[in-house]
Amino acid sequence: TNQQTITKRNTMLTTFSKQADEQFYLNNNREQNARQYDGDVLDPFAKVLAEDAPRKFIVVHLLGTHMSYQYRYPPEYERFTDHSGAPAHVSEDQLPTYNAYDNAVLYNDFVVSSLIKRFAATDPNGFLLYLADHGEAVFDAPKAEVLGRNEAAPTDPMYTIPFLLWNSPKWQAQQPRDFAQVLARPFSSSSLVHTWADLAGLDFAEHDRSRSLVSNEFKARPILVGNPQQPQQLIDFSLVRPGAGGSGLARQEPRAAGAQPL
To answer: What is the mean pLDDT of each run of 10 residues along the chain (262 residues)?
Structure first.
């Protein structure tokens, strides 16, 4: 993990991670506003990949693009510095934060792609699944003044997350699946355990394949968002984003960042 492990809010993280045979705690900062880069996870990841074991379950816990965004990427990834490619509604006061977020996402893309490349280089029989635990509003229309998350007033970007699966050729040959048919399914990461178990070929008493994104038994359900401490006030995500089964954010034209540094 590259998140803090010696703060009150991450005590549960440390408790769960102690169940693993090996742990790597890379972030000993007391403050979240510290320059701790996710590239630090690549060497421990390569070390574990090289170890001799018949089966491996590896969890890589990134710091990702949490605020404050300017601390999430090294200087060579500061590619967005002006208004080029940014939405017209982003003000000059908002622009430094907006650009820092896009720079952080660019660096996060580099880290995730590097994890996939290192995994693929081992000719594995397995898969790599990447997702974020939440989204973030960064001056997104129509509420262009909102920054961060507010469960009392949920918006589309706060709950729309990246969800990426890489299957090795060996794994796909042994467990052939047509993933094209599942791309438009409305899905909540609260059902991740059922999807992951299906992908891994595992079963357990509470396994519900109707909640597995990749199962032929999948059943679409309303996706409820809001403050989980106030369940009576949760709202259907389709009211926040009409047509939520699609991929609205993916249609936004990407900003050109130029060639990435190695």
So the answer is: 74 84 86 82 97 95 93 97 94 97 98 98 97 94 88 91 96 92 93 96 97 96 92 91 52 65 52
Strands (E), the chain: 127-131, 137-138, 147-148, 163-167, 224-225, 235-236
Instruction: Report domain extents, the chain.
Output: 8-184
Exposure of 102 in the CB half-sphere (CA atoms within 13 A): 22
- Token reading at 75: 């200087």
CATH number, domain 8-184: 3.40.720.10
CA dihedral 62, 67, 70, 71 (to 10 degrees): -50
Residue type, 65: T
Read off the DSSP letter of residue 227. Answer: -
Q: Which tokens hold the place of 23?
A: 């742990």
